[in-house]
Each structure stands twice: as structure tokens, then as C-alpha cells.
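TICKET #2291
ISSUE: user wants both folds in one file
ATTACHMENT 1:
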Amino acid sequence: MEQLAALCKRRGFIFPGSELYGGINGFWDYGPLGTELKRNVREAWWEAMVRLRDDVVGLDSAIIMHPRVWEASGHAEGFTDPMVDCRSCRRRFRVDQLYENLGIELEPGSVADMSLKLPADARCPVCGSRELTEPRAFNLMFRTFVGPVEDDSAAAYLRPETAQGIFVQFHNVLSVSRMKIPFGIAQIGKAFRNEINPRNYTFRSREFEQMELEYFIKPGTDEQWHDYWVEERLKWYRGIGLAGDHLHRYVYGKEELAHYASACVDITYDFPFGAQELEGVAARGDYDLRRHQEYSGKSLEYFDAESGRSYIPHVVEPSAGVDRIILALLCEAYREEWVPREAHAGSRPEIRPVEPGTNPPEGLEKRTVMGFSPRVAPIKVAVFPLLKNRPQLVEKSRRIFEELRQHWTAFWDITGAIGRRYRRQDEAGTPFCITVDFQTLDDDTVTVRDRDTMQQERFTVSELPRVLEQKGLP
């Protein structure tokens, strides 16, 4: 993770938030490459969940909502973690993390129902002190105020999830979209949780982004639709480049389910720090709409014209964390290899994985590669002139770059030796590099270098769009 974090900062994927002022724990900024990667993930999700479906529409709801929303949803009272303070160093920790540090497994549901006590050998993870307070509830919502007066009458919260905006706007969306059950409302947006101890790089942060779908269904069809969405979401993860053997399902036992849920499956990924959740797919029954109907006093029933009766729809909720998906893609893509110091057009260079602590074999050197799927790679193609001091090469390469950028996110680079430019693009995860050399001026062909094999092939300039599409650029 340290090597990955260093590359992410060096190449502009992720920066610590407010680093100029010493940073602020739990907040991260995405640099130029990270921004493109994140945008590609969001667009891939939106395409699969909304654009290519007839039964899902989109929503973009406000971050700050009426405080009663969070009373109805249960967040005002129940969105808590048991936490302790260290009296010596004044740091705060979740109790379940103290158990985790001691290697003690917790009973299912013990965190959610606040039944945790301090483990007998509990120490502060920072200073080692045993002077810890007793566990007490800590609400994870960020509190703020609406308007000029800062008192309880003006209190509001930054949303801890995007889902409630969908439930609150259910009837409005239904009336304008003319949808019929089953149908879904999708949303991508920021959420905020005042995590006691953000950790594992960007995995657990205080500001993050969610991609959520609320799929409204007829009561009694919960199991069918829950199974369907678990399979759809696994298929999507494999489609953006996460290896199937690194993805797992964690099926909740009955004793672990929320009281209103009939089923829940977490899709997990094998991070370097262990298998952790990317997304939860939950069958939530009619809990959310029923609660908002109760608290607002307004009907959220759906009239089914076919059966002639009204009912509160049930819902299946696939809820994914964008930042966690980005981190999984970075972990999946990162690799170090021994490669030849020189590669020649037409040849297929020998590539060997780097064994930790070993020296480079004779004639080989180490390269770092981000092997993103072309579907999500921040830069799809890079274009270089062989030499920057040859105006004809520079002009020709620039024309090719301008043409290709009409189709894909492209990058033009004239700085440094050609091998150094290749290495920079390897670390950026660019699938293909195109080099304009002196032969280009004679026969209008260029070399196309494959990131993964390092093989170089010659094609005419006019062939490039077709060739790159055939090689996998979306």
C-alpha cells in the first residue's frame, strides 16, 4: 500500500487533502489522472445502470435535507458507533477496532446494537495506555446550521448516504417519468460520515462518493430481484477489470440482517489489508418508504393498474462506494516487472514478474505498470514524436493527436527520451502509445506500442482508429 500510495501521489492519482497545511485526516483530493479514472468509473456505472436500461431513471438530490428526513430514516438515533477516548493522548477509537487489534472475533450484530464492552487487554493503539473511557454512542453525521442563527432550530446534517434523497423524491420521479413497478432511481453523489478513525488509505474516509440504485418492486418478488442485482453487479465489476478470483460474496446470516431486511450480500474485494466491502446489495422491504410516509404524513403508495390495488413498494438497494472501487482498481492494476532495457519494433519482449528483494536479471530493468482495463484507464492513448527538435515529426504527431483526441482521452508528450516517455505512460496506465518517427514521413506509418506486452507494431495513420478499437479501446 505504501508503494501504491507513493505512485498515486507522484503520478497525480490521489493527493492528501489540504496537504499544504499539514493535511486533514479522512479527506483526499483526486489529481488529474485520478479525476479521469473516477469519471470513467462513474460513467461506466451510469451507462450500465441507467443509460442502457429502460427501467431506471436518474436523480441528483441535495446534500443537505430537512432534518426530519434523518429522523424518519433512523440515522438521527441509530447511526452510531460505540467509541472510546484515550485519557492519555486524547485520541478516539471505535471499540470494534480494539477487538480487531487483539485478534478477537466479534459476535454478529454486536457493533450495531451497541452491546460492546472494552476487551480485557484493551490498550490505546497510539500510545499504549490502558486509560480508556467506557464505550459510548457517537453519531457519525456531520452537523451544520442552515441560515445565520446557530442553534438547534437551525440544525441540519450533511447527508451520510445518498439513498434518502431517492426515497423522499419517489412520488415526484414516479409522476414525471411515468414508470411502472418494477423500476429504479439511480444517483451518484457525495456523502459524509464523521468516522472515528479513518484508515487504510482512501478505503474509509470522512468524505466519499456513492453510486446507489433504489429498485422498487412488487411485494413478494424480493428474493428474485435481490438475486438478479447481485449477479448484475458482480458482472459489472468483472467488466471494469477486477479479477473474478479477487471478488467474493459475503452473505449475511439471519442474525446479522437489519430488522427490516430479508437479504443482504456484500460484494468484497481482496485488498492488501484483507477482503473488504465494495458494495452492499440489500432487500430492504418497504421500510424506507413506509417510514417517510409515517413521518411526512403523505402517501407514498403506488397504484398498480393491473391488479387494481395500491401498496407501498419494496426495494432492492445496490449501494457502491466510488472511492473504494477506485482503490480496488488501483490495487488490481499495480504491478512491477523486469523488462528488457531496449525493445525493438516487431519483437515481443520478455517480461518477468519482480520477486521482492531480488536484483534485476542481466539485460533487464524494473518497470512499474498500472494495468487498467481500457474501459476505465484515465488516458486511452498517448502520441509522441520521436524527437522534439524535428519540426516535421512534431507537426505530424500533433495532427495525429488532435485527430485521436476526438475519439478518446489522449496525451501528447515531447519531453525526454522515448523510453522515459513510455515508462511515464506505463505508470499512468495508458494502454497504447503511438510514436511518429522518420519512417512515418516516408510511408505514413507509425508504431503502436501495447502497454502490457510492450510489443510494437506498425500501422498507417488512417488505420489507427480502427486498429485501436479492435485492440479494445471503448
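ATTACHMENT 2:
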Amino acid sequence: MAKITKLEDIVSLCKRRGFIFQSSEIYGGLASCYDYGPLGVELKNSVRAAWWKDAVQMRDDVVGLDCSILMHPMVWKASGHADKFADLIAECKKCNTRTRVDHLTEKAEEAEEEHTKHISLDTAMATAQDLSNKVCPNCGSVGQFTEPMPFKLMFETQMGANIDDSMTMHLRPETAQGIFANFKNVLDTTRIKIPFGIAQIGKSFRNEVTTKAFIFRTREFEQAELEFFCKPGTDEKWYEYWKESRFNWYINLGIKKENLCLRNHDPDELAHYAKACVDVEYKFPFGSGDWQELEGIANRTDYDLRQHQRGIRTLNKWFESDRDLTKIELSKEAEDYQSGPLSYFDDEQKTRYIPYVIEPSAGIDRSTLAFLVDAYDEEEVRGETRNLLRFHPALAPVKVAVFPLVKRDGMPEIAQNIYNDLKKYFNCFYDEKGAVGRRYRRQDEAGTPFCITVDGQTLQDTTVTVRDRDSMDQVRVSTDQLLNHLREKLEV
């Protein structure tokens, strides 16, 4: 198997075959924004569906939500984002390029990206590094930087038709807070009991200083997050459970185990809310070849529900103020948190407590990229290079392609009938243009697991050729057994 060492191979394939395009390309493109093409949207939909099936559909202890992107400003005050969600940046005096301070490298070091860590503005300023020996990644100047300054990561927008009643809102930087804000609603409207989870897939937005590597880090991205609520004292058990479960999800969908690892966060690397955190990392073919984060699994303790209880008590201050979040302090009034509105009453133990939370948080776009990279292969077949994507059948954008061998003798009509029958069950593709070998190659490159060809023998005994993408083996299958044969192979 040919080893992919350049992301350019994947980017070229994505553009050539309609997986991913540069956004607004006809106008020169918009940096760090991408559109998913016909094959890409099917792949991304399959990744979403696979995550949802594993996290929600196949479990009795997880329910789903779809929360609004725009939320009350106090959500972000209570969560800490309004005060802490920022990067420390410095501007090169030579070329005016702004770079995150923690991404700058020493003159003698090889440039490589460190792991992302968002900290409070006060902490960031207090720990600013000496930049005298740091290198600008754009022009190569050494030590030519302005003083580090905070850069807020949330996108702002305005809500309201009139100036008098408009207020500043934020596009959500994560989907998790919508789940915490709906914790009581879920408890009140379902019969679910702790331990249980609430899952959501949706768009998030971060005004990142540094974007990189195609769809790996963008300013608009899609998250798949699960908040699993459990009794304090059982959190470490559930933390270990979800580490293993999420790691195995990638392997079960075809990611090679040698390309995955778990990296525990060091104590000084943990987010302000986390008791523990581990990243599922994948060896992407960019940068210096180091492991890059695919997903994080964090023990958030009871931080979020406690904060939102404080936020509820602070709400009147927001109404009475000029609604500037930076001027509002969360309530420090003594409160029995165990009996607050976001606490949980255990009917069996007759106790009330605020649950701990274990959070697996995956990026749908990053996962899609990892599945693309890991599936990509090149091999020589009869003196020609065959490019193919060895997707797990559950992720393949097209499950089955149907061809007539030639456009005569009734073969197109039979092939069309088969195609029309199968597309009720799978995402299918019909093609009758060009030599059948070239059609196979096009489907290999799109990652289609099986191709069906109607040929002369079909006219005699109603069997068709079914070709396997990976092995290129061909078998004859009767048309009346075709659906069952494909369902077994595709595991659907």
C-alpha cells in the first residue's frame, strides 16, 4: 500500500471528484471555508449517521437534541466563554501577520503546532512569553513582534429590528452549552434517569487566529457532542468507559489502529472546567507528521450545571444593566447548589445532587478528513495506477453502482430497473458512459464498495456480475437474490 505523505493528494482528489470545494471559489474563495460537493455531502452525512447510530440510536440511556445556534447572552457568561474564550496573539512588525503566541517557534526549532488550549485573558497575559527569539511563520523575521494581546474567539452579531431594542449576540463556539441549558427540560419531559446522556450534532463557529490543513481547522465547523450525566463518585468509571467506546468507534469504521492513539492531557493543559481529559489523535499527513486531535473526552465534573445555576440567579442583573457581559459578575450569593433548579433527585436513594458530566466531543469535519485520509490508497494494476478509497461500507458515499455492459440489446433497460429497485434501500449510481473498466476505476476513486454489471449472460439466466471494490473479485448473483446479497455485504 502506498503511504500518503502529502495532504495535497487528498485535496486534489476532493476537488477532482466533488468531495470538497473552496467556498465562493468563483470569487476567489473565502479562506478557511469549504463547501461539500455531491460525494462529500454523502460522506459527511454517513459520518453523522454513524455517530448518531452509535451514540443515540443503539443506546437506551442517551437522547438527542437540536439546539439553536443563537442563545441568550447569559449562557456564554455562565459558561465562562464571555470572559475566558480567547487566544493570545502577536503581530509581526514586518509583514503584519497575526499569529497565536503558543504557535510561534524558536529560531532554532522546527516549526510545529502545539495542542490547542484556550485560557482566560488574565492568565494569557500573565504567562506571555518572551518573543525576542520567535520566528514569524509568514516572513521569517525573528523577534519582530508587537506585545501579545488577547483575541476573542466568538463571532458577534446583532439581534433586533431597531437600534433601541437590538442586542449583541454570539454565534455559539460549541454545542455543549445548549445541552446544559436544556438539562431540566429533558428531565421534565422524559422518563430517563441518571446515568444518561444527551447528544447533539450541529454547527459551531470560532474566529480562529490560525486555520490550517484543509478542513482540519476552520472557523465554521460541525461538532458531535455527548454530555453523559452521572452520579459523583461514578464519574471515573464512566470516563474510562467513554474513552474506550469512542476510540473503538473509529476502529470499527475502518480507521487503522496504528494511526490512532490516546493522549492524556497534562495537569497544566487541562481546561478550567476539566478534572481529566484525553484526546483521540490521528496521524494526519500534514505538518511535521505529529499526531493531531480528532476528538476529546473530558470529565467536566459538575462545573457547567453549577455555573448555569449561578447564571440563573444573575439574570436580573443582565436585565437591569446595559447588557454588557463584561460588566456583569455571576452571583456569589450563598446558595444550596444541591437543591437548585439544575440538580437531580434520585428517587431510589432519596438524595439530591448536581450530576457530573463526561463529554465525548468529536469534530464531524475532522472525522470526515480522517476517514478520507485513512481510506485513500494507490496500487498498480496491470501497469496502471489504481486510486481508490477503501471506505467502510457504512461510510461510502455511494454504496452500489449499476452499469449496462453496452448500450444495446435491452441491457440499459434491465440495468435501469435494477438501479430503480436498489436505490430504495441504498445510495446508488447509474453509469452507462465509456468502457466498463473506466467506469470501475471512477467508482473505485469514489469509494463505491460494489459495482453491478448487466451483460450478455444476464439476458440468458438473469444473473449479473457483482464486483468488489477492494479485491476486484467478481461473482455472479441472480437478480432475485441481489438485494439480500448486497444487504449482507453492506451490513445493512
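RESOLUTION: both attachments delivered.
EXTRA DETAIL ON ATTACHMENT 2: Residues 57 and 392 are 19 Å apart (CA to CA).
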